[in-house]
Amino acid sequence: MALAFDEFGRPFVIIKEQDQKVRLRGLDAQKANIASGMAVSRILRTSLGPKGMDKMLQSPDGDVTITNDGATILEQMDVDNQIAKLLVELSRSQDYEIGDGTTGVVVLAGALLEQSQKLLERGIHPIRVAEGYETASRIAVEHLEKISQKYDFGVDNIEPLVQTCMTTLSSKIVNRCKRSLAEISVKAVLAVADLERKDVNLDLIKVEGKVGGKLEDTELIYGILVDKEMSHPQMPKQIEDAKIAILTCPFEPPKPKTKHKVDIDTVEKFQTLRKQEQQYFDVMVQKCKDVGATLVICQWGFDDEANHLLMHRNLPAVRWVGGVELELIAIATGGRIVPRFQELTPEKLGKAGLVREKAFGTTKDRMLYVEHCANSRAVTIFIRGGNKMIIEETKRSIHDALCVARNLIRNNSIVYGGGSAEISCSVAVEAAADRYPGVEQYAIRAFADALDSVPMALAENSGLQPIETLSAVKSQQIKENNHYCGIDCNDAGTNDMREQNVFETLIGKQQQIFLATQVVKMILKIDDVISPSEY
Description:
thermosome_alpha; GroEL; phosphoprotein; 19 strands; three-stranded antiparallel β-sheet; TCP-1_chaperonin; hydrolase; seven-stranded mixed β-sheet; ATP-dependent protein folding chaperone
């Protein structure tokens, strides 16, 4: 390698043997693409299932993240290869659409790529492989529909929802508290759900965390939690039947828009200016008192004089509250966000049964609870934990549980987990392959083999013999015609997932198969990679 300069004095590098490098095309390019995708899949394979391992990721800034969530691992990995980036996008799509199954979808895609490599080496054209995969994915999705079950639940019967969320949480770091966290997630979703329209707005569920306490101290608050305290230490810490003025205008005198300069050369002028400023504050505070407000929540700050005046007028206030929190407080309390003091009226005040300030541990950390609101369709999940990493991972786990509960409300069909659905689909796809006379039947059988990789990974991660365990479970499914036999990852003594209460949402499993097949088809059809410098 040597450094040279062009006619404009710009440096460039001459790499030896550059002329001997050959760009990959055709079958070689496809094999290289498949190898890139399989490399990403192998990273996530060990994180699958309840006994899956965690990954420690270090950012360039030195921040450390410990997680086994597929979407988070791929999001924080520094991936340069374009094909590997497709699998990162695949995991992200599953996360956006379903919220769960982000590891499984990448493992399935990697298995499909591995099988397609064998088919390409046997001389089968990539287009025929892609068509076979498409046919097999349709067969698998239709079979999932047949073996799925409807799960009835209601506001009084939340156990089915809790059990499904527990399945999701069982593969996370927080699995020792999965029962309590699943109940909190389900109650939060039902609090904001519109069951008639089968719609859930997850934006109304705020997830907050604070270091300290135990994971078991995590609680659901039917209201809003704000990481702020009263602006003056002598203001009351608890207000009952609060009428809240929600302001986006600052407690300060108006500023001219143009550049200005004030010359003060006598004491009298200074006192006049100070009096005028005080009058502004007086008018603002009096306006809040006149409309009947007993608490002021302001997006901006206010100086010590305004703070002192608010305390003396017995009007508690909270300052520097973020815009998102303001919107949630307005939704929960039924109030309106007021941009100018002149527009403040009694009808625009929010109402809450109790507003209280709570201190934590021996530190001076305090938070504000806004509870028993007029509109309880905004809730907060408050997470406690020993360190920041535990809290962040718990937030990710609860996000998955919330998404699963939302998906069940939208579509209450479930399939059983533990790899039972994949094994059943594999058997159905294998049986259907004989009906296709063309070369596609090889691809359809390869798809069935790829589906087996998910239960095999579950067995491997649980410390079981993967091939023996899979063969025994598949044989049991076929003999007993029981589609609910899966891998006994938890050593419960039974392979029947109905008895273990391990199940997943139907739409989540269908989406995994659809997305993995689409991405693998796209990778198979790429036979050349051209960089910008080459055209």
